[in-house]
Design goal:
With about 130 residues, this protein is mainly α. About 65% of the residues lie in helices and about 0% in strands. The C terminus is likely disordered.
Length: about 130
């Protein structure tokens, strides 16, 4: 199983912290946006990918969003298969409001941060 490098782990931690802060302050759209960004960053790494979908499931339960809950259960079943087969839709946000199989454009500011982790410069700050 491929593990995320330190730069990727830093980006994941930044998005996780942003999610937790947004959730604490009651900013639901910002919380979802941080989880979506975490998903895009961590999708290639099974542990991070699965953990993100678990967080999305937990947040859906907290919000009593049953449609999202159903979508996250499906994605928790699909995530290991996608990682094992290497068939992951790049840029997909991981939410149930988009197809689990649809590639999506990665936001430019996030793509720049992700690319900086592979060049050996580490994660950049927000």
């Amino acid at each position: 199983m491929m593990r995320a490098n330190a730069g990727v782990e830093d980006l994941l931690r930044q998005e996780r912290d942003a999610f937790l802060e947004a959730r604490r302050s009651g900013d639901v759209p910002a919380a979802w946006a941080s989880l979506e960004r975490e998903h895009i960053i961590g999708q290639s790494y099974l542990g991070a990918h699965f953990r993100c979908h678990l967080s999305m499931l937990g947040f859906a339960i907290k919000l009593r969003d049953w449609r999202e809950l159903r979508g996250q259960i499906l994605r928790l079943l699909l995530a290991p298969l996608g990682n094992a087969s290497g068939r992951l839709p790049v840029g997909n946000t991981g939410r149930s409001n988009v197809s689990a199989f649809a590639p999506m454009e990665i936001p430019a500011n996030l793509l720049e941060r992700i690319e900086s982790t592979s060049s050996g410069t580490g994660g950049s700050s927000r």
